[in-house]
Amino acid sequence: MSKFSEEELIIIALILDEEEEINSKKRKRKRTLWVHDLWKKREQEGEFLNLFNGLVDDEQKFYEYFRMTQYSFHILLGKIEANIKKQETHWRKPISPRERLAVCLRYLATGDSIKTISFSYRLGLSTVYQIIIEVCYAIIEIVMPEVMPVPTEQKWKEIASEFWTCWNFPNCLGAIDGKHVTIQAPPNSGSQYFCYKKTFSIVLLALVDAHYNFIAVDVGSFGKNSDGGIMAHSKLGKALDQNKLNVPPKEALPGTTNDVPYVIVGDEAFPLKTYLLRPYPGKQLDCNEKRVYNYRLCRARRVVENAFGLLSQKFRIYNRRMQAKPENADVIILTTCVLHNFIKKYDGKLTYVRDNKQTSEDHSTPINLMNISVQGGNATREAFGIRETYKHFFNSPCGSIPWQNNV
């Protein structure tokens, strides 16, 4: 027999019915707030609908807003439109590809918080974040193979020729360096992302050509790691070690008969290798020849620092702490590098100052520089020998420049 009377059972049933009705009303209220009333006014009050048409009429303002010309914007939109377009349904009209691209570029160009863009564009916070990541993935997938392909042997030779013409450094395939990008401290990450700058960061390792274009990048290493260690474990470093990047064979330095391998240049954070030159260590060098070598190497190496400066100037997201998960921050950073190359390709090369004055000396007659023998195939000894060869070249009539002894 039940321990409840008939009257008590009726009361319990009424209470349960009342609770069910309350829960049903709550669920209905949640469904009606699926899109906030403020976001429903996107097509009347949203920044894109009210501002974009005005920007189209003013090229300068358009460039200031998106950090690219209208020409580049429409080419980029044409390339990724199919990848970011959403299907229209009976329930609601999707956000157009043009507006999606505008949201992403605005975020990258200004560094504004996602919440700020959410209010100005009348879009939900999660919607803005999703749009940014989806557009970034589309840019990487579609545009990156075009503007950042793996160089062929002929392309490497063109890059080396430009380094000699622009920065007076022969047989140079590029300048390499790392940039720490400040991010919000990831949860449960310990000290992995904590770098020497006393901030949490991930590292952008980049190889740059003579005109500040990114040849190859590696994004996402922990901030606590050194540039040299990051390179050793990166795909770029491993490919260079295994000679899998179509690098041309050894070639004589200009005006000489000394064959040396093609190299990249880096600072003191990188190890000396047969394919990577670094400065002589120490501030008080024992001879002027080493000081000249360090100056010439620094002159070629600084193009990567200039490229980072241009990247930060164009995409102001680098000027503040990035509020994103590390895996999404990697995607955002890589996208800015791709867009950097894309904009330079379609909006024209940036101008820069060169001080490579031509000397009046005749460089047509080959001379013999000091050859340093290599024994036993020791890579370290061979690397020292290659650096010595470059040092002597920069201090010879064939390789010197008029002002190098005055700095």
Overall description:
This protein is 50% helix and 9% strand. With 407 residues, the protein is an alpha/beta fold. Strands 3-2-1-6-7 form a five-stranded mixed sheet, sandwiched between helices. Strands 4-5 form a two-stranded antiparallel ribbon. Helix 11 packs across helix 12 and helix 13 packs across helix 15. This is DDE Tnp4 domain-containing protein. One of its GO terms (molecular function) is hydrolase activity. Keywords: Hydrolase, Metal-binding, Nuclease, Nucleus. Belongs to the HARBI1 family.
Please give the share of residues in helix.
40-55%
The number of helical segments is 15
Q: Report the biggest beta sheet as strand number plus sense, adding barrel if it closes.
A: 5 strands, mixed
The largest sheet has its strands arranged as: 3-2-1-6-7
Low-confidence stretches: 349-378
N-end to C-end Cα span: 104 Å
In round numbers, the mean pLDDT is 81
Give Rg in angstroms. Answer: 29 Å
Structural class: alpha/beta
Number of strands: 7
Kindly report the oligomeric state of this protein: single chain
Portion in beta strands: 5-15%
Give the helices and strands as they follow along the chain.
Answer: HHHHHHHHHHEEEHHEEEEHHH
Gross geometry:
elongated
Subcellular location: Nucleus
Domain DDE Tnp4: 176-341
Protein name: DDE Tnp4 domain-containing protein
Organism: Macrosiphum euphorbiae
